[in-house]
Amino acid sequence: xxxxxxxxxxxxxxxxxxxxxxxxxxxxxxxxxxxxxxxxxxxxxxxxxxxxxxxxxxxxxxxxxxxxxxxxxxxxxxxxxxxxxxxxxxxxxxxxxxxxxxxxxxxxxxxxxxxxxxxxxxxxxxxxxxxxxxxxxxxxxxxxxxxxxxxxxxxxxxxxxxxxxxxxxxxxxxxxxxxxxxxxxxxxxxxxxxxxxxxxxxxxxxxxxxxxxxxxxxxxxxxxxxxxxxxxxxxxxxxxxxxxxxxxxxxxxxxxxxx
Amino acid sequence: xxxxxxxxxxxxxxxxxxxxxxxxxxxxxxxxxxxxxxxxxxxxxxxxxxxxxxxxxxxxxxxxxxxxxxxxxxxxxxxxxxxxxxxxxxxxxxxxxxxxxxxxxxxxxxxxxxxxxxxxxxxxxxxxxxxxxxxxxxxxxxxxxxxxxxxxxxxxxxxxxxxxxxxxxxxxxxxxxxxxxxxxxxxxxxxxxxxxxxxxxxxxxxxxxxxxxxxxxxxxxxxxxxxxxxxxxxxxxxxxxxxxxxxxxxxxxxxxxxxxxxxxxxxxxxxxxxxxxxxxxxxxxxxxxxxxxxxx
Amino acid sequence: xxxxxxxxxxxxxxxxxxxxxxxxxxxxxxxxxxxxxxxxxxxxxxxxxxxxxxxxxxxxxxxx
Lengths: 259, 296, 64
What we know:
The complex is a heterotrimer.
Chain A: H1 2-17, H2 20-40, H3 42-50, H4 65-88, H5 93-98, H6 102-105, H7 111-144, H8 150-175, H9 181-201, H10 212-222, H11 230-252
Helix pairs in contact in A: 1-7, 2-4, 2-7, 4-7, 4-8, 4-9, 4-10, 7-8, 7-11, 8-9, 8-10, 8-11
Chain B: E1 3-11, E2 16-25, E3 30-34, H1 41-48, E4 56-61, E5 63-64, E6 67-68, E7 73-76, H2 88-98, H3 106-117, H4 132-144, E8 150-153, H5 162-176, E9 180-185, H6 188-194, E10 197-202, E11 205-211, H7 212-218, E12 222-228, E13 243-248, E14 251-256, H8 262-271, E15 276-280, H9 286-295
Parallel strand pairs in B: 3-9, 3-10, 7-8, 8-9
Antiparallel strand pairs in B: 1-2, 1-4, 5-6, 10-11, 12-14, 12-15, 13-14
Helix pairs in contact in B: 2-3, 3-4
Chain C: H1 7-30, H2 38-47, H3 51-59
Helix pairs in contact in C: 1-2, 1-3, 2-3
């Protein structure tokens, strides 16, 4: 296990040096801020863009704080997920394709240590980026709209964090099978899109789906009791463990000779 | 004996890269894996390093004092791609820790190894700015840092310029005093400089296994080459003890498994009044012996 | 119209955008292995707000 610690330090150093620890949190902070701000300035924006007839009164009911934060979460569902997938797609393949992974593989390091080091490092970066940005959005929401209780906020963060565990495991697992960045991103997003679409079309049959956690993180903001919460959480945790095992199994089949 | 390899075979979908190779590596020896490009050298070394699973066959490491050699291998791949964004010291620190070296005393050890390969003054510099030769030296440093019992080097000098080549070979030679070394090359001269044992490989098959002196002797045919000014008359009869091959009208090659008296041959030309412009009776060179083995 | 806008609310987001852009530009100038011409990336980073720098960090560098 000391090997895993060394590898996590390596991942940390790498993402500091290539700037991932700077640009990803900033990108999320901007994404989170822009939602409450655009909603707050919506009347002015409409006025500038629309050129409404003289004397027309815009009367949009001010949304509640819960609604604004839900809007932030739905931004994450699309743009956030896209960023998370794109920022994770090359963490394994670039080492594998250029051959630098050999210096690790030739040493007594288990596939378990390698995969877990990647998973933990990415997850920590993602959780921190997500949490900071969501708290910023919460701060703005409280100033501009109505107060949302911290309990609701953290409930929502908790549920969303489990979804992130799954998301990172999925991308890592896919990237042990494929060798190009674009195909890894494509397949990962494809799988997520199918799950989301299925939940949309046949919600009754998809109550177990990990994508369900995204909508439940929204529900957690609006009500205290969330329906059917434990089923998707249990399934997501199990699927995450399965995906990590799959990645470890697959890594053991790797051929390092370039054939 | 350190390693014994039996009937080692690697089959890929389209072709067989290594065909039933059997050999042994003695403890403390230096072995060169020699052969043209595509002979299967890299495949064999990758299997030895544990990076590649053999299709069949056995690689057996001797287990001395209960310590398995598999965990004590130093490997330098062909044209290594290092982690560019690290400094030399950070890279070696990671390698050392992953090899199980204790944190205590590691930095001291890294300094020593960097001093040995001549990179001490760039230890805090990023690898991205290193030249090819420096990267190769750092590659060697990571392979010997944990003092492995077996050092495996895949084409360690083929990408270096002549000076870098000589210096690197000297480093390897110094390592042979401390550990067992096996390295691959397609250049005979490299092997000749530092190794006692050679394995000659072609198209996945082992063509020769032995030391260099034996290789020289294996080709015991004596050859004399003569070029003359005049056209050659028939000075040799059918019943000579050697074979005669006319290259052209003014050049002849004489070969025999038995000892030929060089003076005797030269005398014959003189008696005929022929002007000899070139006469070569040098013993077989290693290069010729090597080509002979490949041609078999 | 402009007076109605509370600049203390918008300032943080503008500052972050400037940081993101400057960091991308600095990284791009320093980077040796940029995929495609460097001036193109400088152009993208400056012209396309937010997305430009992110695009550079994801796709602009080789082996990173």
